[in-house]
Predict the 3D structure of the following.
Amino acid sequence: MGNWKVGTRRSMLALTQTNWVIDQLKQLDREATFERHEIVTKGDRILDVTLSKVGGKGLFVKEIEQSLLDGETDFAVHSLKDMPAELPEGLVIGAIPKRVDPRDVLLSKEGKTLDELPQGALIGTSSLRRSAQLLAYRPDLRIESIRGNIDTRIRKLNEGNFDAIVLAAAGLERVNWDGTISQFLPIDISLPAVGQGALAIECRADDEETLNLLRKFDHLPTRLAVTAERSFLHRLEGGCQVPIGAYATVAEGEDGEGTLITLTGMVATPDGTQVFKKTAQGTDPAALGLQVADVLAEEGAAEVLERVKKENQA
Ligand SMILES: NCc1[nH]cc(CCC(=O)O)c1CC(=O)O
């Protein structure tokens, strides 16, 4: 029983994700009804500046979180990778549904793969993580920033502005546009963003009724994996200024506590000339994230983080 007010961004991807979550929740609770509240965020309004320069991830979630805190909405569906490592006081992630494909994908003219792209090809991405890893693999590539929702970016590729663009497989799959994919980039070439491919359903920490509804929709292996990734991100204070990636898996078929988690973390220089990567295993996701972050920091990632931060202040 109950009526839930659901906050969502207005982009095609956001609406598709929110509708999908509502459909799933209706199957878990046949009595429940849902009302969508569309919210335009700062990240949606500012389209002409590179994200890392205007305040990063928080831009897509802040107004939505305020509406939760004000009680105008009861829960909100986000792409987990758009969420900052720390949530505002009073809010929690009530459910993390099962993750879909975490990989980055290449969309290119004539369906070329990364290896087939011509010398000096122009790649559209505004993600430091993606450009650093692409340059590490193919230093000849030229990178140019591209903003806008998925549909805008694909239009810019089709208009001939780029030889290729990089997007997340997950977003394309959710809006049924996976037919546009030229190549799934291997994880060891492009380590995904923390939380990529997973959704987060955020609600008030003291809203038992909503937490009860959402709990049924939580997927423990995904929660363990993204908890390890977010703990890694948090330890390195990775805003959007530094190329950072992480990807964790949980052994197939296991879904309990004490499950073995494998986490790979990555920090790179923006030009891709230095890439620090480490893989470790453990059963405590938060501790594993800290451990991988600390080892990377010791091996040189700390200097990179310091240097990039200084350069950005200058
Ligand atoms: N940066 C925007 C964003 N946030 C979430 C997704 C979709 C993928 C996901 O849910 O992880 C995308 C698009 C993209 O990176 O291609």
Observations:
- The domain at 219-307 is CATH 3.30.160.40 (Double Stranded RNA Binding Domain).
- The chain has three domains: 1-96+198-218, 104-184, 219-307.
- DSSP finds nine helices and 13 strands in the chain.
